[in-house]
Amino acid sequence: QVDRYLYHLRLSDDALLDVMARFQAEMVKGLGRDTNPTATVKMLPSFVRSLPDGSEKGDFLAVDLGGSQLRAHQVKVCDDGKQSNQLESKFYPTPKEVTQGNGTELFDYVVDCLLDFMETKNLKHKKLPLGFTFSFPCKQTKLEEGVLLAWTKHFKVRGVQDTDVVTALRKALQKHKASFDIDVDVLALVNDTVGTMMTCGYDDQRCEVGLIIGTGTNACYMEEMRHIDLVEGDEGRMCINTEWGAFGDDGALDDLRTEFDRELDLGSLNPGKQLFEKMISSLYLGELVRLILLKMTKEGLLFNGKVSTALLTKGKIEMKHVCAMEKYKEGLSNTKEILTELSLFPSEEDCVAVQHVCTIVSFRSANLCAAALAAILTRLRDNKKLLRMRTTVGIDGGLYKTHPQYAKRLHKVVRRLVPTCDVRFLLSVSGSGKGAAMVTAVARRLAAQRRHIDATLTPFVLSLGTLREVRNKMRTELEYGLKRETQANATVKMLPTYVCGMPDGTEKGKFLALDLGGTNFRVLLVKIKSGRRRSVQMYNKIFAIPLEIMQGTGEELFDHIVQCIADFLEYMGIKGARLPLGFTFSFPCRQASIDKGTLVGWTKGFKATDCEGEDVVDMLREAIRRRNEFDLDIVAVVNDTVGTMMTCGYEDPNCEIGLIAGTGSNVCYMEDMKNIELVEGNEGKMCINTEWGAFGDNGCIDNIRTKYDKEVDEGSLNPGKQRYEKMTSGMYLGEIVRQILIDLTKQGLLFRGHISESLRRRGIFETKFLSQIESDRLALLQVRRILQQLGLDSTCEDSIIVKEVCGAVSKRAAQLCGAGLAAIVEKKRENRGVEHLQITVGVDGTLYKLHPHFSRVLRETVKELAPQCDVTFMLSEDGSGKGAALITAVAKRLHNVGQK
Ligand code: ADP
Ligand code: MG
């Protein structure tokens, strides 16, 4: 009879799987921006993004409001490797005047209890951070702020709903500050579920779910940020407080709710609310049993149909009674005793029936809880794209802990519902209190970490004012380089190139070109056609220059170059032809004519001896002569910037600037002859190779150089030289990043403080990795994989930091480059004497071409710093090859004109 009566309270596995699916759908609804307002399960972001990592330490206070009692705790967290933490607590009652009075009284009471605790523990004169466990649904916008959405459980305090409870607590603390000597700083507002997860997470790093089955019931878990619409940002995870107690408030569980559930709800403080919680938590379990017994008695099924006053009284049966009655091992004695106390005079049969009722009610509670938990676990597993997952659930709450069978039942059902999860259930020891301290400790660690990272990266953030200053200094240095009196000591050399004319489309013929000074050494054959069939055809071959030759003697270097030319001529079958040759030599050269260039100094990775101060064309001619195999007509020595400008100029006559952002950084532009004091003549224009990479070598931008820039400089082949280039070009950006990463690791902020062998290796962090890591399309997991390939074992949090570091370094590079370019275009505008300048810049270089943000930031900076110039950027297709041929062709044409 009893069984038939309680049929509706029994739930089959199919029914539970159905509940699980409904809860899964509810979670999705709660997470979505548009669906959240109508969702019953609110899925509240907790702003807890990290679990403890064991390096937390310090003394913390915690108050815990929302359970059966108010608790104050002192927690000592030690980072001694043993991961121990100590807890001392004191409990205070929460009388009805407090739980159903007004807000001011409530928070005054909380502070009174806290003061009493601090007095007992002698803590009054210390400055202590406090974590506030407040186990009601709160809408948080940060860790230390939360607006109460609604009271639940046995609380109903006036004037608190829709206000920030942290502010209220702080206000109450402030009132007492004058009369008592206390200094307490509320750092975190924590839900008890989150506290439980954090406490267990301290002992078991795998813990990512927190579950409470006590006075109330609720769960939290770590959700992917990209699924949380209500919080900005896509990276990493955040703990979501599901507030699953409200599941079913929209009627979703009505088919499962019985007449007893409805009756219980109507008699509660919050009718229609927290319907799931009312089927599960300990606050309602006894009451549910009472309502069932009452009805059964009234229908004559129990106690001879005699209803006692006690049985009619709300709250007379509590969870502790249910637990006691379900202690089967003790037979029926407990049940008999309890029922007798309720003046019910039970028979043996009555006792058996009542025990059965208790079991079915608590079994249903465990079943429902398991179904919802199974939904969370499935979601976690799907988020991780795993077929099988191992995880840990931290649990707290009186029902789970004290009920004789509850835990075992729950575990069993969960494992049956999600066989693909290996779940460890970890009991939290006073999780809500200790957990608040853990959240506070983690928050403090993260805040400190944030401060250190910000402090490290702040020097890379350049204000508009600073960028303007850089632009102005660059302008000054450009002038120094052009003026006769100052140019000898100028850092920006402003080298005349003797390239005076732009291609006009009449160029034609076959040319050889060499490209030395970039990543690759190449020999090219370029065929230029003019007129209607105007076109450029190129054939090229890349040759390696071994390090020992790059850094050997000059003779060896040039012999190697000629060897490569010989191979190429052979390969192309043109050994006999004495072709005109343009030599792209991308190092600073002082030229006296277009085919004479004295190397001022090596830059980038080159360092061959006996070359500086020598004419590179002579060296090449001599090497050809030494080989005595073929002859070439070396017409022009060309800087790659000039080649780039020429290539683009061939398409767009408005192109009068060439920019390289590749291995190195450099610019050339067409300057009025009258401004070039070093070269005779005042008519027309000549291209100036600025060699701006050396900007700052006199210390003029040392104010913005960081210690990392200095480290990179000191570890380079040319210390003290090319300071601007070392902040802006592909050869160095990765190295700057590596220096920062080392420093952050040393500070214990990255890679768990462990500097791996690979991180120590110079050059390991290539600039192409910046491009990959900074790509917007890349998920964090992929960043991690890149770092792993580099031998850097990173966590998710590490990956976020590394990405931030890369971003800071590349952004500064682009901005500095933009500031320099702004100086150039402004100068050109003034030269022309126009209000508004339209100009095209030819650009080459892999950093510009492949980095996801460099070119955009560069363009934006130029626009900002040179608002009167309308700058078009034109990508150059192989400037150093085609450009060299074009310059050679132009030079030949002009030469011929001169001869005629
Ligand atoms: P160069 O300037 O040597 O003639 P490039 O223009 O190809 O040749 O530039 C090479 C430089 O570009 C190298 O220093 C390298 O660090 C950098 N680099 C290579 N790949 C990338 C990438 N994907 N993103 C940014 N920089 C890159
Ligand atoms: Mg190049």
Automatic annotation (TrEMBL):
Biochemical pathway: Carbohydrate degradation; glycolysis; D-glyceraldehyde 3-phosphate and glycerone phosphate from D-glucose: step 1/4; Carbohydrate metabolism; hexose metabolism
Q: What is its EC number?
A: 2.7.1.1
Its subcellular locations are: Cytoplasm, Cytosol; Mitochondrion outer membrane
Catalysed reactions, semicolon-separated? a D-hexose + ATP = a D-hexose 6-phosphate + ADP + H(+); D-glucose + ATP = D-glucose 6-phosphate + ADP + H(+); D-fructose + ATP = D-fructose 6-phosphate + ADP + H(+)
Q: Which GO terms describe its molecular function?
A: ATP binding; D-glucose binding; fructokinase activity; glucokinase activity
Subunit structure, per the record?
A: Monomer. Interacts with TIGAR; the interaction increases hexokinase activity in a hypoxia- and HIF1A-dependent manner.
The Hexokinase N-terminal domain, residue ranges: 2-202, 453-650
A cellular component term (GO) from this record?
Answer: mitochondrial outer membrane
TM regions (residue ranges)? none
Extract one GO BP annotation from the record: intracellular glucose homeostasis
Q: What family is reported?
A: Belongs to the hexokinase family.
Coiled coil segments of this chain? none
Xref: Gene3D superfamilies: 3.30.420.40, 3.40.367.20
Keyword terms of this UniProt record: Acetylation, Allosteric enzyme, ATP-binding, Cytoplasm, Glycolysis, Kinase, Membrane, Mitochondrion, Mitochondrion outer membrane, Nucleotide-binding, Repeat, Transferase
Q: What class of enzyme is it?
A: transferase
What's the protein's topology in the membrane? Peripheral membrane protein
List, alphabetically, the PROSITE patterns matched: HEXOKINASE_1, HEXOKINASE_2
| Superkingdom of the source species | Eukaryota
Instruction: Tell me the function of this protein.
Output: Catalyzes the phosphorylation of hexose, such as D-glucose and D-fructose, to hexose 6-phosphate (D-glucose 6-phosphate and D-fructose 6-phosphate, respectively). Mediates the initial step of glycolysis by catalyzing phosphorylation of D-glucose to D-glucose 6-phosphate. Plays a key role in maintaining the integrity of the outer mitochondrial membrane by preventing the release of apoptogenic molecules from the intermembrane space and subsequent apoptosis.
What is the organism of origin for this protein?
Sapayoa aenigma (broad-billed sapayoa)
Protein's name according to its UniProt entry: Hexokinase-2
Task: Answer yes or no on keyword Glycoprotein.
Answer: no
Q: Where is the Hexokinase C-terminal domain?
A: 209-442, 656-890
